[in-house]
Write a structure and sequence with these properties.
With 105 residues, this protein is mostly beta strands. It contains one helix and nine strands. The strands form two sheets. The chain has a five-stranded mixed β-sheet with strand order 3-9-8-5-6, with no helix packed on it. It has a four-stranded mixed β-sheet with strand order 2-1-4-7, with no helix packed on it. The longest helix has 12 residues, at 7-18. It is globular, with a radius of gyration of 19 Å. The chain starts with 6 loop residues before the first helix and ends with a strand.
Length: 105
């Protein structure tokens, strides 16, 4: 059995261990009608930052319906990844723009 004075220390350690780490931010660019990189690996909780460097609007539309992000010209849009899986996505306005995002748990 722990001495009474140890209870706050143990409680603090337990709370610190349960605090989730901040996810990474992964940048993907859309420029000259190309998504780069075309294949990206990430984890649940990471943030995808799509940077549209074109003068045209683009989307990042998941083929499985998980998300559909619209990016105005010369703007940046973010999305926090909520679930694991391999997601193929494309631009609805320019269907030749395709990429794959693999999300680990």
């Amino acid at each position: 059995m722990l001495p009474r004075w140890m209870f706050p220390v143990v409680a603090a350690l337990m709370l610190g261990a349960s605090v989730p780490a901040h996810g990474a931010t992964i940048q993907i660019t859309m420029e000259n009608l190309v998504i780069a990189p075309a294949e990206v690996s990430a984890k649940v909780g990471d943030t995808i930052e799509w940077v549209n460097r074109d003068i045209l609007a683009h989307t990042a539309t998941a083929r499985n319906g998980d998300w559909d992000v619209t990016m105005p010209p010369k703007k940046t849009v973010t999305l926090v990844l909520q679930k694991a899986g391999t997601i193929e996505y494309y631009c609805r306005f320019h269907p030749n723009m395709k990429a794959t995002l693999t999300v680990a748990p």
